[in-house]
Design goal:
By secondary structure, the chain is of the alpha/beta class. It is built from six helices and seven strands, in the order βαβαββαβαβαβα. Helix 3 packs across helix 4.
């Protein structure tokens, strides 16, 4: 049986307390549904918080790491994918996810959102700075939504994944 993988993307070291709180709750909620949580796998920011939340719910986490040695890996990653691709791993994050949830915004997250839109992966935007959601919506040619709560994000994912 194929597992459903949901990517949670967001800032690393520059993540705000709100983004960290949302990412933890999102990871927990996604894992509680039985979906696999995929992140950039590093031990910082949204990646760390989402993986910790998923593990707290007994879920499975996958980390797509930029390094070839895993030195920067979160201990909350169950399945590390060591790429040695640096920021090029963003395309792996996106294409390996059925849905991409962007929790906050930084340069790497912006690249992941753009790649997701280009690949027509469904995207959910959370905790975006003013004006950012409007920009992403204007560029979207596939499914995109804004979620103000974790519950709304999970409901939207469910809607997109239900045939």
């Amino acid at each position: 049986m194929t597992q459903t993988v949901v990517g949670i993307m967001g800032p690393g070291a520059t993540a705000t307390p709100l983004q960290l709180e949302l990412a933890y709750a999102l990871g927990k909620a996604i894992a509680s549904t039985g979906w696999v949580v995929l992140t950039g796998g590093r031990a910082v920011g949204v990646m760390e918080a989402a993986c910790r939340g998923a593990q707290a719910a007994g879920g499975l986490t996958v980390g797509i790491l930029p390094s070839a040695d895993g030195a920067d890996m979160s201990t909350a990653v169950d399945i590390p994918i060591l790429t040695g691709l640096g920021d090029g791993r963003n395309v792996v994050n996106v294409l390996s996810s059925r849905v991409v949830v962007a929790c906050g915004l930084g340069p790497g997250t912006a690249a992941e959102i753009a790649l997701a839109l280009k690949a027509r992966r469904p995207v959910i935007l959370m905790a975006m700075p003013p004006g950012a959601s409007d920009l992403w919506q204007s560029l979207a040619t596939g499914p995109i939504a804004i979620a103000n709560t974790v519950e709304a994000a999970v409901a939207q994912i469910n809607q997109w994944l239900t045939p």
